[in-house]
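G., the chain you wanted modeled:
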Amino acid sequence: MNSLDPQLRDFILFCVERRGADWPALYDEMAMVAGQHLFNGLGRAELKQLGLSLALDSVDRTLEIVKQAIAQSQQA
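Predicted structure as tokens:
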């Protein structure tokens, strides 16, 4: 398992803390947080540069990244 960019991991964990890890509520929270740049100014474009797309056609990959971020936080 590759290590995620720390900013991306922290964005996901920020959203988990706000809304919980249940899907699709977490997806909705990530989209809202990104849309309003609520976490360190990160928006959709910045997240995409870090490897996270919030596009619906990428939802499977997004869910994999979320699971990876949560697993990494639990190992720390």
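The chain has one domain: 6-71.

Shout if anything looks off.
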